[in-house]
Predict the 3D structure of the following.
Amino acid sequence: MPSFKSDFPVFSHDPSLVYLDSASTTQKPKMVIDALNTFYEKQNANVHRALYNLGEEATNAYENARKIVAQFINAPSENTIIFTKGTTESINLVAYAWGRKYIQTGDEILITEMEHHSNLIPWQLLAKETGAKLKYIPMKTDGLLDLSHLDHYFSPKTKLFSMVHQSNVLGTLNPTEMLIQKAKEVGAVTVLDAAQSVPHKSVDFQKLGCDFMAFSGHKMFGPTGVGVLVGNMKILDKMNPFLGGGEMINKVTLKESTWNNVPYKFEAGTPNIAQAVGLGVAIDYMNSIGMDTIESIEYELTKYALEKMKNIEGMIIYGPKDRGPVISFNIAGIHAHDLATFLNQDNIAIRVGHHCAQPIMDILGVPSTARVSFHIYNSKNDIDIFCQGLETTITYF
Ligand code: 7TS
């Protein structure tokens, strides 16, 4: 299995670090860190307004990043790519700018019980404000969606359907295309939370067929503070603005104003320019490896970890057999927080808690889980060290 650890400076800075929390955020390759420095050293100016060379260079770098993103996910045009702060902001943008315009009392919003809070709270808020009903496709205790009564959930009242592509807690790979198709058949607008899929495999926006898709740069080797909403241009065009301010306007008078074209209508104020440029370079990095290679490395790591973890005394692993590179677990008799604290003494970084998906914890009947998640800088050796750390912790307790 190829090793990409040397591309990531954090591991030369701290060679003993075993980083198993990439579902939270990934480490950054040198290429991306260098691109941020280069931007600030050589290209920094505000975008879309300066008539001087530096401003044009910054604008070109920012707009080039938009093209790279569009190609990466096969968007129909770079104009459908809106830079946001991250997945959370992307989903809120739809809930505010589309939802507040189109959702009414009596309408239904459909999501699943498997959602990260950022694909749940915006819809709860919208439902409360508009008098719409929020419904959930259930999740079973095995970590799969319960698809047995879909016709009960999808109806002509369903105006919006939003779902997670790949679960951040259980790694579940959902039957996304089938569910999007179901939603379309009843005329619903569809949103996909792709925060945990775009960083790990090839994702084709047009093939998936959803109206909106959201993801975060920082989970795919990019900087924090930049994410993407890609959307259906016909819908984007008709939506209300999200935030008001500079750049999103066409003509402003003291009485009323008109809006700029998409995507600028949704990018009020000075955007995260360097971060967007950094995200473009992160995608260049992923492309240079190949998304299929990334997916197969992670598949092998996950399979290896599942096999090893299974043999540890008291181990309870949650979620289905086929999954993305995420494993949630508990060890009987040891609190997940104690596990993380003990592993940290050996410089092993894992996440514990409800993973911003409290309804999943309720379904599993636990207050929290421990979670390991992988990316291409991980190795089987990391997993061996982690499993050894678990054994030592168990012996202590
Ligand atoms: N959706 C999913 C599926 C996620 O995993 C996350 C973050 C988000 C949305 C929100 O992304 P953000 O970049 O806007 O914060 N997930 C996690 C996690 O699993 N651990 O920390 C953050």
Observations:
- The chain has 14 helices and 15 strands.
- The mean pLDDT is 97.
